[in-house]
């Protein structure tokens, strides 16, 4: 299942949206703080987890800290 999540970026203050492969119930369970996000939502990749936690998109991250070293 894919849901669209909106979060305000901690960098720009802009509202961003991202489609994530999870449910609202899974997000609510993660927000209880009983386990790390990578344990509660293992299907999310690092960029998706960062977005869910901070609202920062991969593009904003690259603008702030430079692009990936991977080719």
Features:
71 residues; alpha+beta; two-stranded antiparallel ribbon; 4 helices; globular
How would you briefly describe this protein structure?
This protein has helices spanning 24-31, 37-40, 46-54, 58-65; strands spanning 3-8, 15-20. By secondary structure, the chain is α+β, with helices and mostly antiparallel strands. It has one domain (3-65).
Description:
The chain has a two-stranded antiparallel ribbon. It is α+β, with helices and mostly antiparallel strands and 71 residues long. 41% of the residues lie in helices and 17% in strands. It is globular, with a radius of gyration of 13 Å. The protein has one domain. A hairpin with a 6-residue loop joins strand 1 and strand 2. The termini are far apart.
- Report helical residue fraction: 40-55%
Radius of gyration: 13 Å
SSE order in H/E notation?
EEHHHH
Termini Cα gap: 30 Å
Strand pairing plus helix content: what structural class? Answer: alpha+beta
**Mean of residue pLDDT?**
92
Domains counted in the coordinates: how many? 1
Number of DSSP helical runs: 4
Low-confidence stretches: none
Q: What is the percentage of strand-forming residues?
A: 15-25%
- Main sheet, how many strands, which sense, barrel? 2 strands, antiparallel
Strand order of the largest sheet: 1-2
Shape: globular
Find the count of extended strands (DSSP E, 2+ residues). 2
């Amino acid at each position: 299942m894919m849901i669209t999540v909106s979060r305000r970026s901690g960098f720009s203050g802009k509202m961003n949206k991202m489609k994530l492969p999870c449910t609202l119930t899974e997000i609510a369970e993660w927000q209880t703080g009983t386990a790390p996000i990578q344990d509660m939502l293992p299907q999310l990749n690092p960029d998706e987890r960062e977005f869910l936690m901070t609202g920062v998109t991969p593009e904003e991250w690259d603008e702030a800290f430079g692009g990936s070293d991977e080719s």
